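Entry for magnesium ion complex. Fields follow.
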Amino acid sequence: MIEFIRVNKFFGKLHVLKNINLFIPRGEVVVIVGPSGSGKSTLLRTINALERIDSGEVRVDGVSVHDPKTDVRALRKQIGMVFQHFNLYPHLTALENIVLAPTKVLGMDRKEAEDMALQILEKVGLREKAHAYPGQLSGGQQQRVAIARALAMRPKIMLFDEPTSALDPEMVGEVLEVMRELAAEGMTMVVVTHEMDFAHDVAHRVVFMDHGEIVEVAPPEEFFREPREERARQFLRRIL
Ligand code: ADP
Ligand code: MG
């Protein structure tokens, strides 16, 4: 579903992605971990062409993402993204936030979009908050609306960049719970997170990055029990 083939990227002189090779099959949940500044966000953002690359290739479902001939808008419709900061429209209700893209971008009928939005809100446990404005919701609830909004586009892939990092600790669980359910349904997911319990329980594979390199890729049971690489061991010692 997602392929990185010898991908390199620079920000000026800074080599932020170094010869990245990674294959993510459909339905897989990959959790990316690593120190701050190691290139996790940049890697994620190359998947939907929010960042360009300098060499190599990224493919999504066989489509070469950075090929000038590729229709980036069509590609992005298939890829949901959730960030640390929820960026909901403050002047729109939860329901309206969710309905916006399906009606505007997919041309979905308003009633149909609202029915779907309500179903998705139900799924993330917020059916009763459909008509609340973001300012009336907790951080955890806002992030669940942001996930619902991404899901309303019926994406093939969901990307999460530290979705719980900005939340008060008591709200982290409810967001991770929604992500766990999504994983259980077979969604292809790439998740950058510091939530190691989530990585341990939900990831099919953990990718450890450091200084722009993928240093280790392993199933979570192996990665957390006995990482092969010294840099990964040091990282785990620091955070666990
Ligand atoms: P992570 O998500 O692992 O913390 P990032 O992918 O955000 O790391 O950043 C990787 C490196 O690239 C860091 O050194 C960061 O400072 C740098 N960087 C990120 N975005 C830009 C940018 N737009 N311009 C220049 N440097 C950047
Ligand atoms: Mg980041």
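NOTE: The beta strands are 2-11, 14-24, 29-33, 55-60, 63-64, 79-82, 157-161, 188-192, 205-210, 213-218.
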